[in-house]
Amino acid sequence: MRLFVGIPLAAAVVDELTRVTQRLRAKDDGLRWSSPESWHITLQFLGNTGRDQYECALARLREIHLPAAPIQLGAMGFFDRAGIFFAGVKVSPELVSLERHVVAATTLCGFTPETRPYHPHITLARSKGKASEPALRKLKKSLVVQFGFTPFIAAEFLLYESKPTPTGSHYEVRDRIALARNLGG
């Protein structure tokens, strides 16, 4: 199974992002738009995982006891080389702490930490290759106004399984790990 650890979005943020993407989306733009059901903030991509490694990761992740993390979306942007349009997530000390604890926990089970700096975001659309690069450039030019999003408190993080389908990956929740309800301890 292909696994990753992430934070689900608050319903209000999903509604706001849905309205924004509906406004930005163009018919036959050649981009593969992510469905609202797939939106999340990745803490760590684990990849292909066997049963023993899965059980180890689950046990270690359940040992994480941190305060709930405030989440605020930031500016929308692009990973040009990857052909991705995303909504950024502002980095907070609580979010960085959660990401570091997740990576430390899964490293004990043999997962390899990412070498690039943590850049939390929500993937909204992907190019389908060279043919859709003009659509991505057009989207970039049309993004003259940034949008404001409702802040929320991440009360949990999830262990997801990614199942590939012809229209993109489908994500299934394998487990939910609660964070402490009160901020600051």
What do these coordinates show?
It contains four helices and ten strands, in the order βαββαβββαβαβββ. The chain has a four-stranded antiparallel beta sheet, with helices on one face. The protein has a four-stranded antiparallel beta sheet with strand order 2-7-6-5, covered by helices on one side. Strands 4-8 form a two-stranded antiparallel sheet. It has a single domain, classed as Cyclic phosphodiesterase (Cyclic Phosphodiesterase, Chain: A), CATH 3.90.1140.10. By secondary structure, the protein is of the alpha+beta class.
What distinguishing features does this structure have?
4 helices, four-stranded antiparallel sheet, 28% helix, 185 residues, 10 strands, Cyclic Phosphodiesterase, Chain: A, alpha+beta, globular
Short description:
The protein is α+β, with helices and mostly antiparallel strands. The protein has helices at residues 11-24, 51-62, 93-107, 133-142, and strands spanning 2-8, 31-33, 40-48, 69-71, 73-79, 84-89, 121-127, 152-154, 156-165, 168-178.
Q: Percent helix among the residues?
A: 25-40%
CATH superfamily: Cyclic phosphodiesterase
Morphology call? globular
Mean pLDDT: 90
As residue ranges, the low-confidence spans are: none
Number of DSSP-assigned strands: 10
Domain count: 1
Under the CATH scheme, the architecture is Alpha-Beta Complex
Which sequence of strands runs across the widest sheet? 3-1-9-10
* Gyration radius, in Å: 17 Å
Percent of residues in β-strands: 35-45%
**String of helices and strands:** EHEEHEEEHEHEEE
**What is the terminal-to-terminal distance?**
34 Å
